[in-house]
């Protein structure tokens, strides 16, 4: 018994304080309004682990794997489409679309989000010491036949289907007791989602409206959906609306519903929106986008599992 006290002191000494939060509203400058900004963790120099910004995560915990199905509908169209893996544009098919149920090896069939928490793979965090996001990895799944030996295979535990993984790209999520803000998939034609409101849920139900600003430039200003040569400052405004019960692969879930809209002062014609359905255990189970070109893109969570290892 006389050895118990020193051991307890050592264990207590290794414990790190709870993460402190601050409101990041720098992008709003002097135009800030109530509800503008995002709550993020303060940098803790005493904690050099990858888990310093994920230890208190509500939904996006390390090892979780979220598999999304999706469909795309062109402006003024009705038929559901998916995207093709292609290295170049086609004049006849500039958005690289294929029929939703086409059994093609080149069809990007699902979107896989993995919570890796490996900051060294996220370029934005490597270049910015104040980055306070949990690292996630998006890959795009292509169906493979049984017995396939393709590299980087992923097996659905729900269906047993084998998939090859394409286009791996690390990015980040902010997940804490105040709010959850998620980078959407933004590779291939999914790049268009950079111009639509990012999934953003605020836990304080007394606040019904909030906002976040994003500067958009580079490859995201694709002439296939927006005509701009200069970077855009886009204001994404969010409104909390009534909860809804929706049918999902996990049963009927009561979800927190948020409607987001996107506007740009420099481009009055700019307009985008998203209706998101959030559940604390499953995250954003449904994201229904109306993109800047008038097209529609819907992502729905169909599987959630824990990886054995990365």
Description:
The structure is a single chain. The protein has helices at 4-14, 123-127; strands at 21-24, 38-41, 64-73, 81-84, 97-99, 107-108, 110-115, 134-144, 153-155, 162-175, 179-182, 200-202, 209-216, 232-248, 251-264, 267-279, 283-290, 296-306. With 310 residues, it is mostly beta strands. The chain has one domain (19-306). Strands 3, 7, 8, 9, 10, 11, 12, 13, 14, 15, 16, 17 and 18 form a 13-stranded antiparallel β-sheet that branches. A three-stranded antiparallel β-sheet has the order 5-4-6, with no helix packed on it. A hairpin with a 2-residue loop joins β15 and β16 (267-279).
Identify the notable features of this structure and list them briefly.
45% strand; mainly beta; globular; 5% helix; 13-stranded antiparallel beta sheet; disordered N terminus; 310 residues
């Amino acid at each position: 018994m006389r050895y118990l006290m020193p051991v307890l002191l050592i264990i207590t000494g290794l414990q790190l304080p709870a993460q402190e939060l601050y409101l990041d509203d720098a992008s709003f400058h002097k135009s800030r309004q109530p509800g503008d900004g995002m709550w993020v963790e303060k940098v803790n120099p005493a904690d050099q682990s990858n888990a310093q910004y994920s230890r208190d995560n509500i939904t996006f915990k390390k090892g979780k794997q979220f598999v999304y199905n999706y469909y795309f509908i062109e402006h003024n169209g009705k038929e559901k489409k998916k995207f093709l893996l292609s290295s170049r544009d086609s004049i006849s098919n500039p958005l690289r679309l294929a029929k939703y149920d086409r059994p093609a090896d080149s069809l990007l069939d699902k979107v896989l989000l993995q919570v890796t928490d490996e900051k060294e793979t996220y370029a934005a965090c490597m270049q910015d010491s104040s980055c306070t996001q949990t690292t996630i990895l998006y890959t795009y799944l292509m169906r493979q036949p049984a017995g396939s030996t393709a590299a980087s295979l992923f097996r659905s535990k729900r269906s047993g289907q084998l998939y090859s993984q394409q286009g791996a790209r690390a990015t980040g999520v902010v997940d804490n007791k105040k709010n959850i803000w998620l980078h959407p998939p933004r590779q291939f034609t999914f790049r268009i989602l950079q111009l639509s409101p990012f999934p953003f849920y605020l836990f304080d139900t007394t606040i019904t409206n909030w906002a976040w600003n994003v500067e958009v430039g580079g490859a995201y200003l694709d002439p296939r959906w927006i005509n701009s040569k200069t970077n855009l400052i886009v204001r994404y405004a969010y409104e909390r609306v009534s909860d809804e019960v929706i049918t999902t692969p996990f049963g009927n879930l009561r979800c927190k519903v948020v409607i987001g809209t996107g506007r740009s002062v420099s481009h009055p014609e700019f307009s985008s929106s998203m209706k998101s359905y959030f559940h604390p255990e499953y995250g954003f189970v449904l994201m229904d986008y109306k993109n800047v070109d008038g097209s529609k893109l819907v992502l729905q969570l169909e599987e959630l599992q824990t990886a054995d290892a990365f």
